[in-house]
Amino acid sequence: MKKIITTTNAPAPIGPYNQAVLANNTLYISGQIAFNPTTGDLVLNDIKTETKQVMENLKAILEAANLAFNHVVKSTIFISDMNNFSDINEVYGSYFDEETAPARETVEVAKLPKNVNVEISMIAAM
């Protein structure tokens, strides 16, 4: 069974995809960037603020599916500059209990949508 998950508390998709798809007991969350869902503006003040906005968008999508960060089993972090890793990791890590944190990879890429510095996708299980 496939169910589309949407919320106005996270940015609307900017292409032919959905915020998240629930298939059986697994939630697949599309990559989120630092759009403020209220204003539609990108939050690019600094890397920590940008990462916090990304995480808040992910949190809103998880909540729309009646889940939380403790349900996340896998994260993928795309960053435009590996020199930002420690600041991104600090903000990201504040949303998880280190003992039960999900599996994850972090990949430096040449460019991200809208020229942002970080994009994160997640998979969560009920």
TrEMBL record:
PANTHER family: 2-IMINOBUTANOATE/2-IMINOPROPANOATE DEAMINASE RIDA, PROTEIN HMF1-RELATED. One of its GO terms (molecular function) is deaminase activity. Belongs to the RutC family. InterPro entries: RidA, RutC-like_sf, YjgF/YER057c/UK114. One of its GO terms (cellular component) is cytosol. This is DfrA. The lineage of its organism: Bacteria, Pseudomonadati, Bacteroidota, Flavobacteriia, Flavobacteriales. It comes from Neotamlana sedimentorum. It holds the Pfam family Ribonuc_L-PSP.
